[in-house]
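tool_call predict_complex ligand=FE2/S2 (inorganic) cluster
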Amino acid sequence: MKRFPFPLPNGWFQVAYSDELPPGAVVPLHYFGGELVLFRTQAGLAQVFDAYCPHLGAHLGHGGHVEGERLVCPFHGWTFESGGRCAAIPYAKRIPPQAAAVAHATVEGSGMIFVWRHAGGVAPLWEAPVVPEWGLPDWEPWQKFRWRVRSASQEIIEGAVDRVHFPYVHKNEGVPGMQVDFDGPSLRTVSSLHLPEGPTEMRVRFYGVGAGVGRKRGVGDVAFIGTETPIDDETVDFRFSLMKKRSDPGDPSGRMAQFYIDEIARGVGEDIPIWENKRFLEHPMLCEDDGPIAQYRRWARQFYGE
Ligand code: FES
Ligand SMILES: [Fe+2]
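tool_result ok
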């Protein structure tokens, strides 16, 4: 019996950080239970294809190389444009008209590369996540954390709306107040937390079950994004990237922001043993004060299927 019944979800998922992929780089990826190749053209465009060359199935991520704006297969030199179309077969007079690599919509922003994954091959239905503070001069670079978790994306994000677990798992003072707003593929939460610095408000916008972009205001501003990319149907590549607003060395707000960042990273470490050992109950026995868990699960259903 599987611990959770979900197939792989549809949506935008982070597959890399931008700085991991210089121009001309070709990287094999294993996500969504399959093989992919990520590459960056010389002009700087990042693109994801299915890994296997449509000619005779070589893995484009093992020995493939970039020539200008194209990806070249290591096996017989077939050459693909970033949109997937085969642009050249060096030894042939005629290119079969259908010859193309399977290209996946790929978007780069906030120092990250996202790919659109859909079980039915449907084109992107909503915008990829963005962190507006990224790259602004008064914000520091990302601090990056990453875990490989035996769980599912939906389960990890459920932790954000399960307000009651905070005092028990994370030893926060009291159950946070939480307002939740479901809006198509987005979910917005506003939580009030009791942190050592005093009451703090945190706002997060989730983009499907692949990412949540948030902001903590108060003493020490922090912007962050958590991304949950399925490696397969029982493993998630969970990245958390946070940045703090620049502050003078003597200013306590910089210390508070760093404290918060460290707390988040520590908090995930506390969640992981629960996530990796729990089961998803189809009919949980909820009580009145559990918060919007049932609504969250209804909202999440839209991310499955063709
Ligand atoms: S398998 Fe790619 S060119 Fe032949
Ligand atoms: Fe948690």
